[in-house]
Design goal:
The chain is of the alpha+beta class. Helices cover 30% and strands 28% of the residues. The radius of gyration is 18 Å and the shape is elongated.
């Protein structure tokens, strides 16, 4: 089943969840129509997420309130940097930022 998330829910999910992690999602089931390659119309059911988080069956989670400065710090940490290092030399991360990601974060 396809799941869609938008806005801050999607941003926080991308920052908090890793590819292959077990998750719990709640939302609304909605039918979606699309055109197939052969020109016929198909229908699928999509879950429009209203809330999501990690499943705690096989993992533990620590929560932190999401805010703009927290997002910046977490984003820099994924690049192997800190706010202090960027303030000292903002061009230092150029090669890491321009590099292609290995895989999607979810």
């Amino acid at each position: 089943m396809d799941v869609s998330a938008w806005g801050t829910l999607a941003e926080n999910g991308a920052e908090s969840l890793a590819k292959g992690s077990r998750v719990i999602v709640t939302g609304d089931l909605e039918p979606r129509t699309f055109e197939k390659k052969d020109g016929t119309t198909g229908t699928a059911i999509e879950l429009k997420a209203t809330d999501m988080g990690p499943s705690l069956v096989n993992q533990a989670a620590r929560l932190s309130k999401a805010n703009k400065s927290n997002k910046v710090e977490r984003g820099l940490a994924t690049l192997g940097a800190s706010i202090e290092s960027v303030l000292q030399d903002p061009w230092k991360l150029e090669s890491k930022v321009d590099a292609q990601p290995e895989a999607a974060p979810f």
